[in-house]
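At this stage, I wrote out one protein, both as residues and as discrete backbone shape codes, and that material follows here.
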Amino acid sequence: MSLSLRWRLAIWIVVAFLLVMAAISVTALLSFQRIVDSELDQGLSRDIERVLAQITLAGNLDDQQRLEQLVQENSLTGGEDSPFITVIRDVRGGVVASTPGLAAEEMALSPEEMARVSNGEVISRSVKLPGGQEFRVRTTRLAIGDVVLGIVQVGEATEESSRLLDTLQWVLIGEAAGGSIIALAVAYWLSRGALKPLQRVAEVAAEIEASDLSQRIDAQGQPREVQKLADTFDAMLERLDKAFREQRDFVLDVSHELRTPLTALRGNIDVLLMGESVDPETRAQMESMSMETARLIRLTNNLLYLASADAGREPEQRPVELDVLCLEVYRQTKDLRADVNVHLGSEDQVSVVGDRDLLKQMVLNITENAVKYSPPGGHVTLSLSKNDGQARIVVEDTGPGIPPDQLPRVFERFYRGNDRGKMGGSGLGLAIAQWVARAHRGEIRVESKVGRGSTFSAILPMEADAAGVGSPP
């Protein structure tokens, strides 16, 4: 699942916060460790000076007993559990005396370290003894003038400083966790305001339909980036609206201009067909011309209806007797195809309020569509009923049916499914029927099974003030 821009922005802010906290924590821990080591080294420097002074006063590195006593005095308890340890080595690094119980070999110096210490360098390092306790050890030489007499090591346990370091580490982890939750909440709240102008753009875009391009975002006083996006979007809508109006006006004008000559042409052909002197071959050609002219008239009417729909035409509000209307459609379609039987099913007396011409075109389009797709010998039934304050016009056919994947698209303009080019037609009839139903606050439903036919149901509300017996009791 894709995250919204708001959540992404909030998460990236939290990630940035955690990265900053991690950098601060690492810097703080390293700095604290450096400070602790520095303080330990300063204390060990004083301790090692004291031990050197005591050894110098003893005056003899061969006095084992005296050196061990001196080491014991500089250790509180002795052994690896002592917070202070002392080791005295000879010039070759061998242990002369050390804190009792101490594994002094773990504090041995490498040849390189021996050379550095012999040259007068003081070495500080951390050493972990076998028991797991860590000591900070400072190593220097014992010399009189330029003569090196031995090596002295003094160490102090780092347990207390390690405990402080661990405490600081957990405090920083806790602050990072708590801060992340707070940062997430604050970032989510702030992103709401930051993305609100973009949300407005999305809302306007979602509300815009092909028949209504008049809305504008008009994002005044917004951030520069949002303002630029909104202005670009508004300019695009302005161009689309202009192009759409020009297209609609063109279709309206062309439809009006074509309908009159086409109607006159068909009338003249029909008049000529009434003559008895027309030979059979000419009559057949003229009948074909009349049929093609009728098809052009239907296409022109469909385009005119679509243009009216796009222009937002409101249907007339007059009482319409649907039973009479359905009877007219039945008489008009029963002879469309000689090989298809059109029946008039049950028919209640029903009246609605609306535009009679549009309602008739709706029923005619649905019925003609059923007749067109029915196979030879098929049946089409037109029925009218009323129930719960609704008028229901049902057209059933025994055609090939509509596949489930095509059902959602049958009311789209110019859509003819997999039979495009086989059955003829423009693919506008059902789109017009749906527009008429919606313009009368109704709907069209379709049920179909492949190989068993389809059922189209136009459902319209019955008004309480509708004329005649169509009003519900």
